[in-house]
Amino acid sequence: MRTQVGIVGAGPAGLMLSHLLHLHGIESVVLECRSREYVEQRVRAGVLEQGSVDLLRRAGLADRLDRAGMRHEGIELRFDGESHRVPLTELTGRAITVYGQQEVVKDLIAARLAAGGEILFNVDDVRLDGLDSDSPVIRFRRDGREEELHCDFVAGCDGFHGVSRAAVPDGLLTTYERTYPFAWLGILAAAPPAVDELIYANHERGFALYSLRSPEISRLYLQVAPDEDIAAWPDERIWAELRARLETVPGWSLNEGPILEKGITPMRSFVVEPMQWERLYLAGDAVHIVPPTGAKGMNLALADVALLGDAFAAWYGEGRTDLLENYSRTALRRVWRAQHFSWWMTSMLHRLDGQDAYEAKLQSSTLRYVATSRAYATSLAENYVGLPEV
Ligand code: FAD
Ligand code: DHB
């Protein structure tokens, strides 16, 4: 098999890149180790920055997004028994849209297949070869048979646990990393959200987040221990903990309902530089991870491949190499802004085991500063909705 760009991974990064290349008349094949059902059902992020929405719209992918996506013009910060709204749109002129990652993935898969695009699901044992030549080869197994995909370039969009990053020879990449002594327990519940806007809560029992997916479905998160066992969290315990952390303002209560899905997500900050080696271009979670508090993961993945799409278009269309050469440097500017913002939001909102009273006072003071200073709130808001140019 031969194509122009071989793409490993059918998450938001890989699928979006394949779609953007198609719009530029460039062929690609996407290789995915999971099934179509699995990637379409995987519950993950839910917040699209304005820039991501604009990108999806420009790429002709916003029909369902425009009908089902929920535009939010503010978020709420809840701490010390008070609630404060950060008016995102008033401060920045921009907004966020709540639309589940798996819906973005469904829209992308549908668009690729409708255009005759090739996505090979359920492939095994993906190996990258010849990345330092003009004709890399991706070897893999499908239905028990060995196959080869020959291409001009490889895009490694296979997430944190993928194989692409590891294909770069030792010693050429620099890793920057931070782990956190907590994780998030996330649930999807058949309960009408008791909120119009997301609530980020700092509580002495730990962080909680109230989000949503539709007028009937709520999405909520709790800070838990990093090694927490989901079996220790029967539904009643989850609701009791959510009530304790979120029902802190008079007259407000959350809506409960059957829990449809629950899982634990570890927290990590991680960047590998550069995001390219020879003919391998890395994008999304394959090269950078942020803790989810800033809602940046999926947005960064889309921003990376928007750059890559343009860079490949310039190479194939005009023989230009500059955009490909600058891809890593350009992408890393946005990546590091999101790294800082995500770390900052995480530090401000979570409780650490053994956190001393001094740190708790600093968190309160920081939150109060955001709540009362237009300048500081604007800084949070412009990062949250996404900076157009970094
Ligand atoms: P992915 O979506 O991870 O896609 C990579 C794809 O590559 C996957 O489909 C995978 O199956 C495939 N793959 C992996 N290895 C191979 C291989 N060897 N061969 C072929 N295919 C392979 N962000 C938020 O903002 N909020 C959240 O609440 C949130 N929750 C998350 C929960 C979890 C469990 C995880 C893992 C991430 C979460 N994120 C969240 C982050 C966000 O979902 C990611 O940033 C986003 O999915 C990145 O997209 P991607 O396309 O780079 O990677
Ligand atoms: C959601 C996830 C996030 O990480 C976040 O910061 C806000 C919302 C969500 O899944 O809805």
UniProtKB/TrEMBL annotation:
Entry keyword set: FAD, Flavoprotein, Monooxygenase, Oxidoreductase
InterPro entries: FAD-bd, FAD/NAD-bd_sf, HB_mOase, RIFMO-like
GO molecular function, one term: FAD binding
Pfam families attached to this UniProt entry: FAD_binding_3 (PF01494)
Span of domain FAD-binding: 2-341
GO aspect biological process, one term: benzoate catabolic process
NCBIfam families noted in UniProt: pbenz_hydroxyl, PRK08243.1
Protein name, UniProt field: p-hydroxybenzoate 3-monooxygenase
